[in-house]
Amino acid sequence: MTLKIGIVAGEASGDLLGSRLIRALKKRRPDIEFVGIAGPKMMAEGATSLFPMEKLSLHGYGFDVLKEIPGLLKIRRQLYQCLADYRPDVFIGIDAPDFNFTLEKKLKRKGINTIHYVSPSIWAWRRGRIKKIKKAANQILALFPFEPAIYKNAGIKAAYVGHPMADEIPLLPDVEEARDQLKINKHSRVLAMLPGSRLSEVRQHAELFVKTAQNVAKVYPETLFLVPLVTRETRNIFEDAMFQNFYQHPEEVQPNINILFGHSHIAMQAADFVLVASGTATLEAALLKKPMVITYKMPKLSWQILKRMNYLPWVGLPNILAERFVVPEFLQNDATPERLGSTMLEMMNNKQLVDDIRSEFTAMHEVLKQNNAEKAAQAILASIP
Q1: Is the Cβ–Cβ distance between 182 and 266 less than 8 Å?
Q2: Of all residues in the chain, what percent are helix, strand and coil, respectively (each to 5)?
Q3: For the domain 175-368, what is the CATH code?
């Protein structure tokens, strides 16, 4: 008898997770079909997509976003009806919590087993959301080892399945290979600077990062700074900050900054140290065993709101996982070029600290490396009677 699985991914990262999950499930159960909303990678593995995945992503700001909401709600209503008629043995919502939790809640009421793959960051903020999750999901598949206990305390079944990034990145990343790809001398001192991927993030961090590079270059003028940026717009913002801060002042130290189009992973792999805006990139840097300084700035009102919602003393994922400050964080008013620069220089000059950080990150990597897709598939199949 064919095993029927409903599945929804809302963006490229979910499509990648979903494709690997489908592959792992099919190894165990070839008699299986997947129906829902899928991206190109999931469809290549055999999933049937009833609606384009791109429709689940809201684009733009203000009124432009509001105009897209009715269409999104219509898709969710139609998809619910399709899945309710289809009666899958299990429904898997991959991330996209704003879309999937409401859908899962309705399907659960229909007696359909619902699993949510990737826990939202309730441990950092919006802890009250766990009540909504309890109504929506029969089980959570968690990427971090501390998450299942949070759900267990709330009466929600959860399984730790490890982080897919930890499976992809080798325990001993090849720095020389990355430098060969970027045509960087293997003896160079390299600092990767990641100011974020969103326009708003780069606007907040561009000048801060440029001035920090100046402060480091005053002590180590031979340092190469790699800045991976994902769009022409973000590159323009960063280049304008460079022009304003030292091209117009030739008497100032001019750091050797190399802007890359994308390639954030290879830039971090090639680097000795990383300066990074808080986000998933902090975990990637940790898995690459890179000593780092974490920073973040945002508009004042947003900061005041977020500060009230935050439950943890750390914002960087490596520090959250370690439950202590393995690497320094400088947020909002504390994020100044002087502090970032001096802290980075202290790290560069402290070999024991660097060795300790790398050792901590190696242990962290080993905990997160769980063969994620296989463990997720195992948990899903175990939930089906």
Answers
A1: yes
A2: 55, 15, 30
A3: 3.40.50.2000
At residue 314, the 3 state secondary structure works out as coil
In angstroms, what is the C-alpha Rg of the chain?
22
Strands 139-142 and 157-160: what pairing?
parallel
Q: Give the mean pLDDT of 38-57.
A: 93
Name the token pair of 322. 């370690």
CA 245 to chain centroid, in Å, comes to 30
CA atoms of 345 and 208, how far apart (whole Å) = 16
The strand pair at 114-117 and 139-142 is best described as parallel
For residue range 181-200, what is the model confidence (pLDDT) as tens digits? 999 999 999 999 999 988 98
SS3 call for 331: strand
Would you say the CATH fold of 175-368 matches that of 3-162+370-382? yes
Q: Give domain limits for the chain.
A: 3-162+370-382, 175-368
Cα-flanking dihedrals φ and ψ of residue 183, to 5°? 55, 50
Q: Are the C-beta atoms of 137 and 115 separated by less than 8 Å?
A: yes
CATH code of the domain made up of 3-162+370-382 = 3.40.50.2000
CA dihedral over 8, 14, 18, 19, signed as positive or negative: positive
What is the predicted pLDDT for the residue at 314?
84
The strands making up 224-229's β-sheet, listed across from edge to edge, are 256-261, 224-229, 190-194, 273-277, 292-296, 329-331
With 0-12 CB in 10 A as exposed, 13-18 as middle and 19+ as buried, what is 25?
A: buried
